[in-house]
Structure formats: C-alpha cells, structure tokens
Amino acid sequence: MTTHLVLAARAFGASGATYTGRRDPKLEETVKGVVSDWGGRFSLEFADGWRGVVQGWRRSGRVVHLTMYGLLLRDVISEIRDDPADKLVVVGGAKVPGEVFGLADWNVAVTSQPHSEVSALAVFLHELLEGRGLGAVFEGARLRVVPQERGKRVEESPRGV
Amino acid sequence: MTTHLVLAARAFGASGATYTGRRDPKLEETVKGVVSDWGGRFSLEFADGWRGVVQGWRRSGRVVHLTMYGLLLRDVISEIRDDPADKLVVVGGAKVPGEVFGLADWNVAVTSQPHSEVSALAVFLHELLEGRGLGAVFEGARLRVVPQERGKRVEESPRGV
C-alpha cells in the first residue's frame, strides 16, 4: 500500500515523500528503482515520528490533511492552489491521530465516502496541479513508454533523455 | 488492495465491480458493510475467470483497459466520454494477460508512469464523470459525513436519508 501511495505521489507531481512507522528497505529500493528507470527527481525519506515532520514543515510551508471528514475538495481547492507556500500532504487513513486535524492548515475530503489513501492522494494532486501529471515528462529517464493503441512499447535510453 | 480498488470505484461513480482470482469473503463483507452504511447502489460480483466477464460485456458495452502502456488519457477521454455505451474498466496491473490489450476498445494510460491501479482507476473515473464523484450523494445512507474544517462529524439516520 505504501509503495502504491509513494508511486502515485511521484506520478501525479509530488517532489518527494516522507513515510513514518517502521523503516521499509524494500519500499525504498522499489522507489529508487522506479526513479532510476523512469526519471525525474523524487526523494523518499523516512522519519521516526510524524509530529516532527509536520511541525518542521509548518515553519515555512502549509499542511493539507486528506480525510473523508474534511471540507469538500471542490470547495477549497482554489484557495489551496492560490496559496504560494510549499505543501505537505498528509495521508494515513484510519491510522492518523486526531491531533493532525488541528495541525493541518486544511483538512480536505476527496469525497466524503470511504475509499483509499491512494485514490485520495492521486485525485487531490491531479486537481491541485490541474492535470499536469497526465502528460508529465520525467527528465533523465532510462525507460520511456511510447503510448500505443494496443500492446507495449518501451524505449530505452542508456544515458537518459 | 482489492478493497481499496472496489471502494474507489464506488466513491468515484462506478455502479458495480467484478473481481476474479480467488473468492474473498472478507472483501465482500467489507464492501457490503460500506454500501449498507454509506448508501447508494453498488454491486460486487465474483467471477471465476476474467475472460467470460470481458467477452460477455463486449456484447452490449465497451471495454476500457487501464495500462501505463496505452494511449494518454487526455488524448482519448473525450472520445470515451462521448460514447454512450456502458463501460467496463479493466484494471489489474502487472497481472493482466496480454490478451486484454486486444479485447479492450481502449487501452488508456493514466500517465505513462508506474503508480497504482487504485490511483489510475480513481483519476480515470474522475475524468470520465467530470468530477461527479466529488460531491455525490449516496441515497439510503445510514451514515453521512458533515464536512468540517477540523474534526469529525457524522450524522446517523436510522432509516437512511
């Protein structure tokens, strides 16, 4: 699940991700492999506790917490988009402690229905960046998909493109 | 993962889902519980094999296969949206057999980057239905979130709303 979450963050335009809980070398290796193959800059960091990450971020940036209990995305997305500060997007589903609601600048509901952190994050970033992820070019990629009507075509560039 | 996928399908406007592979009573129970609590009509079905589902669907509807190797979403979404037939959206990541590429009416890439079936499905439905999921009302819900700036507020309706 965390792998899907981190890869969705990357594909939809985040510049990096921080995860907490238990360190996961397999996750870090997978993400490193994806960045090495598919390009772009994306950092994955581990932090022992979420509180330090959120409080540190709040010194210069803004915090968005995705939760089905928050304000509806369509009602707050323009305000978030217009805010020039860097954003930290907090996701964690049912495991998120109540304290996060108070620390977040925005608690945002990507629908008020239960679904998935992965879908919430992807649709939030898609809306925040106005679809930029859909055609994004990742620099320095070793592999590049050539979109096809049927089948798979992948071009390889030994030095990246 | 399948639970997240099915709940994302429901939240973003699908009328039902069919899963294949191994029957999963826990998945079925979770989804049944979500529909009973949060309302709307949504059917979850199990099928022994994917081929019968896809071929049966093709008799009256159209098939969209989400794959990072397909045509870019932004290039084909209007065509898919304008097609009046009911759509079956096939997702399965790396486990999808090559044959699906040939049976699909559209192979669609929700970005040409690796991410997640969950994020691909959510963003696809979000675009197909032009954001309808974001404020959808699910009829007959026992529970209803009242969007809040902070904290959680859930109203309960014993007979559904």
Explain how this protein is built.
2 copies of one chain form a homodimer. With 161 residues, chain A is an alpha/beta fold. Chain A has helices at 2-11, 25-38, 50-58, 73-82, 99-103, 117-128, and strands spanning 16-19, 43-46, 62-72, 87-90, 106-109, 143-145, 154-156. In chain A, the strands form 3 sheets. A 3-stranded parallel sheet of chain A has the order 4-3-5. In chain A, helix 4 links the parallel strand 3 (62-72) and strand 4. Chain A is globular, with a radius of gyration of 17 Å. The two termini of chain A are 30 Å apart. Chains A and B meet through helix 1, strand 3, helix 4 and helix 6 of A and helix 1, strand 3, helix 4 and helix 6 of B.
Q: Identify low-pLDDT runs of chain A.
A: none
Helix content of chain A: 25-40%
Show the largest interface.
A-B, 55 and 55 residues
Q: Give the N-terminus to C-terminus distance of chain A in angstroms.
A: 30 Å
Number of helices of chain A: 6
